[in-house]
Specification:
About 30% of the residues lie in helices and about 20% in strands. The chain is an alpha+beta fold. The strands form two sheets. Strands 3, 4, 5, 6, 7, 8 and 9 form a seven-stranded antiparallel beta sheet that branches. It has a two-stranded antiparallel ribbon with strand order 1-2.
């Protein structure tokens, strides 16, 4: 995943203290009313820009799923950076926690999907001809092959079709009418492991958990984050053999 870098350029904004007044009850015993007024003083271009930076950053974070922050620490971070104070986190640590923060937001967003896929994989193991490796890769032998199995350093020629759990197809060499030549160790982990189980002429069905696929990342418009992938893969040949 690309590093997430959040550059905070917002000077500290001063806010006027809220003024609250209470109106005394009249002789007619009217209910007590409280009037609260909050004012923000912007008397210079810098003041206006400060507020604009705040709204821009807030809107951007909200759009990306952030619901709330520790505003006291946010302001402290801004002031420490502007005033050259010793920072509580190094740049590397800051990028790491920001990355982990957004990973957690994404995981919460796709929690229902993750649970559904996990339930499917657990139930799929009860199918008689479905096998599982120690990594969690599940596979089904549709057609056995013959001969040597490819190594991670080999190149192979394959036909394949990929779908999501809901059956939506996102890729197919069959539709393109063109097999794919690939290096076994240059694909997602589920493929790298699965291809090494096959011999030329074999056709397998792979059930690949998200952690052996693209993980928390989306891949294009068709594969959401945390997606389990299902592939039918036909190993045509090991190139050069």
């Amino acid at each position: 995943m690309k590093k997430l870098v959040l550059t905070l350029l917002i000077p500290f904004c001063g806010y006027a203290v809220n003024a609250q007044t209470k109106r005394k009850p009249t002789n007619k015993k009217a209910p007590v009313k409280t009037a609260a007024a909050a004012t923000v003083k912007m008397t210079s271009l810098a003041d206006s820009a400060s507020y604009a930076f705040g709204t821009s950053m807030g809107s951007g974070l909200k759009t990306n799923g952030v619901k709330t922050l520790n505003y006291d620490l946010l302001i402290k971070g801004l002031k420490d950076a502007f005033q050259g104070q010793t920072l509580l986190l190094t740049e590397q640590a800051s990028q790491q926690v920001i990355g982990n923060f957004f990973k957690e937001i994404t995981r919460e967003k796709y929690a229902a999907q993750i649970a559904k896929e996990q339930n499917f994989l657990e139930g799929n193991l009860k199918v008689i001809d479905v096998k599982s490796t120690s990594s969690g890769l599940q596979y089904q032998v549709i057609t056995p092959g013959e001969g040597p199995k490819p190594k991670a350093t080999d190149n192979v020629l394959v036909n394949y079709k990929g779908t999501l759990l809901n059956g939506k197809q996102f890729d197919s060499s069959y539709d393109r009418k063109e097999p794919l030549s690939i290096a076994v160790n240059r694909v997602i982990p589920g493929w790298t492991e699965g291809l090494q189980l096959m011999s030329p002429g074999a056709k397998y069905k792979f059930f690949i958990p998200y952690n052996l696929a693209y993980g928390e990342r989306a891949m294009g418009k068709d594969i959401p984050p945390y997606s389990m992938l299902i592939f039918e893969v036909e190993l045509l040949k090991i190139n050069g053999k």
